[in-house]
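Chain A, query sequence.
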Amino acid sequence: IGMVSVCIGMGGMHGVVQAVGRFARGVRSTQVVTACMGLAVFFDDYANSVVVGSTARNLTDARKISREKLAYLVDSTAAPVAGIAFTSSWIGVELKLFSDHLEAIGGDVMSGYDVFLQVLPYRFYCIFALILVFLVALTGRDFGPMLRAERRARKTGALTRQGDGSGRIGGDLPEARAGAPARWFNGVIPIAFVVIG
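Chain A, predicted structure.
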């Protein structure tokens, strides 16, 4: 939340919304842009949820996309992309576990990273979740409760169900500092420092 607050305070998130907003012209393109933003924040699933959720909220609200659909798009890219990315917070834990198990069985032939690369094609949940989120976004096909939520949002303009509190995705985030310019790189640079660090 601290990194996101810095990005918002410097006008970076508003700049990112303006930059990607050019590609979000309709409901489908806005959903695809939101999913692509989820792929871009690959280094941590929690950071992905906070950054993409708070950034895409204004875009999806403007297109009358329900908060349930926004939550689906964000959640279906957060953990799956972190689970298959070569550099993420999950990888550090997994490599340690793989290395410990290899050491326990006397497997000095390969490293934990070798095991990770070999099991990558078998990460079916991660792969299929990412495919499905893009299929849903591109085709505009919804089902179950998400279909009802999308119909409600389009017909009534109500982005959330009454009384469920789901309108607070990401919590109460600060506003941009007065006079802060809306530049996309003010949002990207802090995130890049976290990834590099």
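The two ends are 17 Å apart (CA to CA). The mean pLDDT is 84.
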